[in-house]
Amino acid sequence: MNISRVSQERQVLLREIWRENVLKWLNNELPKEEYSKFGKARIASLVDALIHLCRESRKRGRNRSADKELNRWAVKVNELIERYPSCKIVGWDPPYHRLSFGDDFSTLRLKGATEVEAGTAYSAIGLAELDALEGLIKCSCGRWFLARQRNQKSCSAICRHRLYEKTDAFKAKRRKYMKEYNRLKASGKVK
């Protein structure tokens, strides 16, 4: 097997695991004891800062004046991530007959955070490293999701319709329909 192909497959697998980890945290899909209101806010602000940092780094290639903004976001990300100190660990997985590599948060004192929160923060950092954070979006209903297309703004058809109902075009169409309906109801043709 080609080494670059193995590396690519590993990257794809890690990207999916990290996305799932971040989305589960942001959508409160993990056990209740792992969460705190402040922990969720910390991870959400970290994800937001990482998204801005990635956008600014892409702009930098085209615009040299973006350095100041890029530096500002980098400082913010570093401030947010310093809450989660870790040390690297290596382990042996007997059932799979392979080495496993990871981060250990238990030996270090986390500043008001859980180990799961710290793991989620490192997952977000890993996604930023792969430049795979751009698709994470918060829907108008408050749920986080992975946008499959650039113009996607809603997590479901229900939310998409709710968003459409707030547009002026929908309101005008609805007014016209209700005016006609009320006219027909007054004439006795509709119950």
In words, what does this structure look like?
The structure is a single chain. With 191 residues, the chain is mainly alpha-helical. It has one domain. The protein is built from 6 helices and 4 strands; from the N terminus they run αααββαββαα. It has helices spanning 3-26, 37-60, 67-81, 115-129, 157-165, 168-187; strands at residues 87-93, 98-104, 136-138, 144-146. Strands 1-2 form a two-stranded antiparallel ribbon. The protein has a two-stranded antiparallel ribbon with strand order 3-4. A hairpin with a 5-residue loop joins strand 3 and strand 4.
Described by the principal axes of the CA atoms, the overall outline is elongated
Helical/strand content category: mainly alpha
Radius of gyration: 23 Å
Helical amount among residues, as a percent range? 55-70%
**How many strand segments?**
4
- Please give the domain count: 1
**Order of secondary-structure elements:** HHHEEHEEHH
What strand order characterises the main sheet?
A: 1-2
Largest sheet: 2 strands, antiparallel
Oligomer: single chain
Number of helices: 6
> If you average the pLDDT, what whole number results?
82
| Spans where pLDDT lies below 50 across 5 or more residues | none
